[in-house]
Design brief:
This protein is α/β, with parallel strands linked by helices. It contains eight helices and seven strands, in the order ααββααβαβααββαβ. Bound molecules: uracil and iron/sulfur cluster (SF4).
């Protein structure tokens, strides 16, 4: 375990900076390999995550794990986290104020891990990190903002009742790891969208 990351984790566990602290069972810090080339960012913990204190351990998590395996990866080799680290009541979308209050933790995770790519899982994350919308239109694309690369795909939960979307997620995750391979080999990759801030 990386000491700095462990410190972030401890701070998340005891955090009471926003309203969500009142209704959570457990905070859910990010989890995984701090040497990962990619950070997967989800929206917020759900019921199972709140109970266990770990990200993506419920049905959506199984879909994400399956997509990683399809791409020849395992979840232990990547880093997985969320925009907000505590479960919103009844799984509602996290409020802007909650996202803003929690964002320092994600910034710290990114600064420590320095991923080659940040993988955005779904619309809420797309909106929070890049101000975007319409993830179905932009999925599979690469974005550059402030010298950081992002890869856009759908939220694994969207695949639960839609078999077609499983293929979409799997295809995107395969592409993501191909891109990482190219980045590691210093190949020039094509950036689809550039954001300036
Ligand atoms: N959905 C998310 O966005 N994050 C989790 O950790 C679990 C489900
Ligand atoms: Fe703290 Fe984030 Fe949990 Fe709010 S959601 S209490 S800011 S860790």
């Amino acid at each position: 375990m990386n000491q700095k990351l462990d410190k972030v984790k401890q701070n998340v566990i005891k955090c009471t900076k926003c309203e969500l602290a009142k209704t959570r069972t457990n905070s859910v810090p990010g989890k995984g390999d701090f040497k990962s080339d990619v950070i997967f960012v989800g929206e917020a913990p759900g019921k199972n995550e709140d109970k266990n204190g770990e990200p993506f351990v419920g049905v959506a998590g199984k879909k994400l794990s399956a997509a990683l395996e399809e791409a020849g990866m395992s979840r232990e080799k990547v880093y997985i986290t969320n925009i907000v680290k505590c479960r919103p009541p009844k799984n509602r979308v996290p409020k802007t104020i909650e996202r803003e209050t929690c964002q320092d933790y994600l910034k710290q995770e990114i600064a420590i891990i320095k991923p080659k790519l940040i993988c955005i899982l779904g619309n809420t994350v797309f909106n929070s990190l890049l101000g975007g919308s319409e993830i179905m239109k932009f999925r599979g694309k690469i974005v550059q903002k402030d010298n950081q690369l992002y890869f856009l795909t759908i939220h694994p939960a969207a695949t639960i009742y839609n078999q077609k979307l499983i293929e979409v997620l799997n295809e995107d995750i395969v592409k993501l790891f191909e891109l990482i391979k190219e980045l590691k080999n210093d190949k020039k990759i094509t950036i689809d969208i550039e954001y300036s801030s």
